[in-house]
Amino acid sequence: MDADDSQMTIASLSALTPAEQAVLDQALTGVPAREIAEHMSLSEATVRSHLSSIYVKLGVSGRVALLAHFRGTESALPGVEAPPIPRPRSASVVAWSWALGSLLEGAYAVYLGSGALANGGSQATWVLTIGFVIAAAFSARIARAMLDRPSRRVLLVSLAAAGGHLLFAARGIFLGPPQSFIVMGAIAIAIGGLSFLAMGQVPALRRT
Fold it and tell me: Could you tell me which CATH class the domain 3-76 is placed in?
């Protein structure tokens, strides 16, 4: 691409909206529209609409032509910086709540397991230990997914997981120290409520 073409490309890029620039930045990595939608918390239809607008403004016929247009022409891209993808504050709170919950569940699993090894724990104690290990691992996974990609899908998983933790806590009251499971249930209710509130904020991202 010569200097005139580069100037034309930069002029065309400046005509893109911030949302289109963000979609373009993702599209140039070669990921499909579905993954762009998940990463940006947009609907796939919205991403495809942005892509169609981008093709028209840049004068290309489609994704293949778009990639070919920019292949080896990084000099055309400086000066057009995609805006950061906004993250709902409540989604970050949910993520760190799961991370804290994972630490607490892991610590309690170690406490139960070490006590069972030292004193010959009952079958119920071992069941609870394994349950807390699984819960801690799942909580950590949700926290990481929420920090990496706070989409509606992840928030739905978070809401469902909070319900699962609440059921586990309710069952555990009859197997172990009730105080621990009451605290766990309260945390699960709080995270579930935060997840529900965060889901209400995700559609606001689709208008950016």
Answer: mainly alpha
